Inverse folding.
C-alpha cells in the first residue's frame, strides 16, 4: 500500500468517515475514494487531491500531511527526499554567516611532547586550534586536510573562521563522494556541498578535491586514522569518529603525511573551479561550459530575471567602469558574447527563474546579478525600462521563458546557471568581497539541482503564466 493510501486511510479512520459519506460531500465517487484508500490508484492531479481535502474538511496540518504523502507516492521516496535535500541546501547557502577565529585563545596552548596521543573530541579540537594558530604565524600559511566534512564539523567550522579572519591562508581539502548515494536520495553527496559551502564562498584560497567510493565501507570503524591534517609545523591523524588522534611536530612525520596527502590528491578531481574575475568567468563559459553550439544554458536561477541578452554595445560602453584593470578586454568579450547569446536564443529559448523581490530590486537599483557590481555603474531608470521591454518582446517571440518563483523562495545572495545535467556555474554575493563565482561539475549533485528546478511547475512552486504577465506589466507601470 502506498504512503498516500496509508495516510488517507488513517485520516478517514480518525474522522470516522466512510467513502460512502464522502461521496455525498463532493464530486468524487465512492468507488474512486475506495481505490485511493486501498492503494489501487491515486488522484490524477492536484485539483483532485484538493477536492478530496475539501470534502474531508482537513485542518492545515492534516492537509499538508496528505499533500506530502501524495507527492511522495507520485514521484517515489528517493526523488521526493532528494528534492527536499536540495531545498535545504539552497536555504543554507543563501544564509551563510561566519564568526572570527580566536587566535589568542589557541596560541596560548602548546604541545607537551614531540608526539602526543590524544583522546576525546574536545582535546582534539583544542589541538587543532593550536595547529591553525601556529600556521597563521607563517609567511605563507598552507593547510592540507583529508576528512569527511560531516564527521568533523568542528574542524570545518574552525577552517571557515580562520579563512575569513586571515585571507593569506591556503587550504586544500580532499573528501570522498559516495558512489551509491546518487542511486537513492543522494542525501550524502548533497550534504557534502552543504557542509563545505561556507568554505567555498569565503572568498579565500580554498581548493576542494573529491574521489568516488562507497563511503560506508571506506570510512568506518575499521579505518584506523582516515583523517589527515597537515600544516607547515604539525601533522595530525585522526580516527574515523574523531575520538582519537596522533599529533606531532617531527619533521619526518609531517613529511610522511604530506606525501600521503599528495598521493591521494593525484587520484582526485577538483570539486569547484574558482572564477575570480570577469575575464575568468567569460573564458570559462566559452572554453569549458558552452561551446559555440551550446551558449544558452538549460536554465538560470537568480534574484532578478536574466537580463544579460538585453544589453547592447552602447549600454555596456556607457556604464562600464573603465578605470578598473582589464575592463577594456572584458567589455570586448562581453559585447561579443551578447551578440552570440542573442543568436543562440533563436535556436534555444532562454529559461530564467527569478523572484518578484529580485525583479523589483533591479527596477529600484539598476543592478543585475550576472555582472559583479564593482565593474559597472547602475543603469538609469530609462535603461531599466528598455531592458524589461526587450525581455517582454522576447517572451512574445517565444525565445525567452520567464519563470517567477513562489514567494517561499528567499534567493538573495545566490545565482547559478545549469548548462546540462552535469555542469553549472555558481555565484555568491559575499557581504565583504562582492561576487564570488566558480564552475561546478560534480555530476551527482548537479543532477539533483537540475532535477529540482526543472520540476518546479510539477511541484507547484512557480507563479502561473497569467499572474506572471500581470506582475511584469505592473513592473513596467502598465
Amino acid at each position: 500500500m502506498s504512503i498516500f493510501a496509508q495516510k488517507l486511510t488513517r485520516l478517514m479512520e480518525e474522522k470516522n468517515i466512510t467513502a460512502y459519506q464522502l461521496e455525498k460531500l463532493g464530486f468524487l465517487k465512492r468507488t474512486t475514494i475506495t481505490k485511493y484508500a486501498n492503494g489501487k490508484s491515486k488522484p490524477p492531479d492536484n485539483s483532485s487531491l484538493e477536492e478530496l481535502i475539501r470534502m474531508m474538511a482537513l485542518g492545515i496540518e492534516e492537509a499538508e500531511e496528505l499533500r506530502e504523502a501524495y507527492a511522495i507516492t507520485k514521484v517515489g521516496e528517493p526523488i521526493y527526499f532528494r528534492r527536499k535535500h536540495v531545498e535545504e541546501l539552497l536555504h543554507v547557502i543563501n544564509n551563510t554567516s561566519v564568526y572570527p577565529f580566536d587566535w589568542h585563545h589557541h596560541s596560548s596552548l602548546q604541545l607537551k611532547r614531540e608526539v602526543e596521543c590524544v583522546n576525546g573530541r574536545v582535546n582534539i579540537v583544542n589541538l587543532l586550534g593550536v595547529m591553525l594558530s601556529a600556521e597563521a604565524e607563517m609567511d605563507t600559511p598552507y593547510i592540507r586536510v583529508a576528512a569527511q566534512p560531516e564527521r568533523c564539523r568542528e574542524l570545518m567550522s574552525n577552517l571557515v573562521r580562520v579563512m575569513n579572519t586571515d585571507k593569506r591562508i591556503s587550504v586544500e581539502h580532499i573528501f570522498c563522494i559516495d558512489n551509491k548515494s546518487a542511486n537513492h536520495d543522494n542525501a550524502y553527496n548533497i550534504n557534502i556541498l552543504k557542509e563545505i559551502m561556507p568554505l567555498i564562498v569565503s572568498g579565500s584560497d580554498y581548493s576542494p578535491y573529491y574521489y568516488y567510493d562507497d563511503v560506508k565501507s571506506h570510512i568506518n570503524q575499521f579505518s584506523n586514522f582516515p583523517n589527515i591534517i597537515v600544516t607547515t609545523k604539525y601533522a595530525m591523524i585522526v580516527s574515523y569518529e574523531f575520538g582519537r588522534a596522533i599529533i606531532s611536530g617531527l619533521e619526518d612525520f609531517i613529511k610522511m603525511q604530506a606525501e600521503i596527502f599528495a598521493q591521494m590528491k593525484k587520484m582526485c578531481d577538483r570539486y569547484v573551479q574558482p572564477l575570480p574575475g570577469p575575464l575568468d568567468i567569460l573564458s570559462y563559459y566559452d572554453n569549458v561550459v558552452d561551446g559555440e553550439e551550446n551558449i544558452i544554458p538549460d536554465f538560470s536561477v537568480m534574484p532578478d530575471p536574466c537580463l544579460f541578452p538585453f544589453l547592447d554595445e552602447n549600454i555596456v560602453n556607457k556604464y562600464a567602469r573603465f578605470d578598473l584593470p582589464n575592463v577594456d578586454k572584458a567589455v570586448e568579450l562581453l559585447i561579443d558574447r551578447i551578440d552570440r547569446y542573442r543568436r543562440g536564443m533563436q535556436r534555444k529559448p532562454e529559461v530564467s527563474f527569478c523572484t518578484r523581490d529580485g525583479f523589483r530590486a533591479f527596477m529600484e537599483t539598476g543592478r543585475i546579478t550576472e555582472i559583479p557590481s564593482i565593474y559597472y555603474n547602475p543603469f538609469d531608470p530609462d535603461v531599466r525600462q528598455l531592458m524589461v521591454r526587450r525581455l517582454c518582446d522576447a517572451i512574445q517571440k517565444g525565445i525567452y521563458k520567464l519563470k517567477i518563483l513562489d514567494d517561499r523562495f528567499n534567493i538573495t545572495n545566490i545565482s547559478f546557471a545549469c548548462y546540462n545535467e552535469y555542469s553549472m556555474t555558481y555565484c555568491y554575493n559575499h557581504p565583504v568581497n562582492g561576487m564570488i563565482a566558480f564552475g561546478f561539475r560534480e555530476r551527482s549533485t548537479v543532477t539533483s539541482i537540475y532535477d529540482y528546478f526543472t520540476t518546479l511547475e510539477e511541484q507547484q512552486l512557480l507563479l502561473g503564466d497569467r499572474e506572471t504577465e500581470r506582475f511584469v506589466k505592473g513592473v513596467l507601470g502598465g
Summary: The first strand starts at residue 115 and ends at 119. The longest helix spans residues 327-347. The chain is about 50% helix and 15% strand. The CA atoms of residues 312 and 335 lie 7 Å apart.
